[in-house]
Write a structure and sequence with these properties.
The protein has 329 residues and is of the alpha/beta class. It has two domains: 238 residues, TIM Barrel, CATH 3.20.20; 65 residues, Four Helix Bundle (Hemerythrin (Met), subunit A) (Up-down Bundle), CATH 1.20.120. Helices cover 42% and strands 15% of the residues. It starts with 5 loop residues before the first strand and ends in a 12-residue tail after the last helix.
């Protein structure tokens, strides 16, 4: 069964395999997502490097970028064979590279093509296929654009819809500006859920805390956190207790890091640079005494050739006590 109640958003350059292992140590229940991978990269590239993941990451979803139905089906089957729990189609990324490749948010203008891709993936795999989209692009009317896309992909077999509650402006705004400038319209996502009560609808965009997430859960089936989860990962310690009513796997960030050490040591032995992992940790002790010294130590020493696990241990030792973060989640 597709668990939709809480997930961490796919984020380019951020939610790689090391990040996901880190996040999983804070929450057993959240669904994790890969960075977007193009169908071309998966079909023609180094699949082990691109798709490999640690078994601890389950449940983990593969996000695809593409628009050609045959390629989407092929890439989805490859992802299923690698062991992913879900295939997600990106219909929301506004970057120029995505637009030039005819995938991402520009596909909001081609709902029939998106539905064709979803149908092809559903025929190819047995795991859930989902779609992540915007409420519209450019001059589209979100009431019409989102409804047409949603009904088309659901008719094609999509198992859930993840909606970033902003338009994407493909002309005039940069990808970074598209994450903040277009106004949020959560009510539009609520109306979609009300109109499609039998379809799981997950809301995304600008949600800054678990408190806000729980408010949204009164209207939709699930909440997806992006930057708030990545930049202040301590928030994930509260997901299982507050969203699922279950104990967290670890109660403090220091406990999380202790549990992370064997993975880091294994990766170092495989030739992974320490900084490739520690770059995901900079927000771990937000607002805790010693947090700045922790970040500085990692920044100065984690990038050095041959940096080992003691760099992280020394950085953690700079954080006072066992406090991890402000109490508010």
């Amino acid at each position: 069964m597709l668990e939709t109640r809480f997930s961490v958003a796919p984020m380019m350059d951020w939610t790689d395999r090391h990040c996901r292992v880190f996040h999983r140590l804070m929450t057993r229940r959240a669904r994790l997502y890969t960075e977007m991978l193009t169908t071309g990269a998966i079909i023609h590239g180094d699949r082990s490097r691109l798709l490999g993941f640690d078994p601890s990451e389950h449940p983990v979803a593969l996000q695809l970028g593409g628009s050609e139905a045959r390629d989407l089906a092929t890439a989805a089957k490859i992802g299923e064979d690698f062991g992913y729990d879900e295939i997600n189609l990106n219909v929301g990324c506004p970057s120029d590279r995505v637009k030039d490749g005819r995938f991402g948010a520009c596909l909001m203008a081609e709902p029939a093509l998106v539905a064709e891709g979803v149908a092809a993936m559903k025929r190819a795999v047995k795991i859930p296929v989902t779609v992540k989209c915007r409420i519209g692009i450019d001059d589209q009317d979100p009431e019409l654009a989102l409804d047409v896309l949603a009904r088309g992909v659901v008719a094609a077999g999509a198992d859930a819809l993840i909606v970033h509650a902003r338009k994407a402006w493909l002309n005039g705004l940069s990808p970074k500006e598209n994450r903040d400038i277009p106004p949020l319209d959560y009510n539009r996502v609520y109306r979609l859920k009300a109109a499609m009560p039998g379809v799981p609808v997950i809301i995304n965009g600008g949600i800054a805390s678990l408190g806000e997430a729980k408010q949204h859960l009164a209207h939709v089936d699930g909440v997806m956190l992006g930057r708030a989860a990545y930049q202040e990962p301590w928030r994930l310690l509260n997901v299982d207790p507050e969203v699922f009513g279950e104990a967290a796997p670890h109660t403090t960030m220091k406990d999380v890091f202790e549990a992370m050490m064997p993975y880091i040591e294994d990766q170092l032995a495989r030739g992974t640079r320490l900084h490739s992992m520690t770059r995901h940790f900079v927000g771990a002790f937000h607002a805790v005494p010693g947090a700045r010294a922790f970040r500085r130590h990692l920044a100065e020493n984690g990038v050095r050739a041959g940096a080992g696990v003691n760099v992280l241990r020394d950085a953690i030792a700079l954080v006072e006590g066992r406090a991890v973060a402000p109490m508010a989640a």
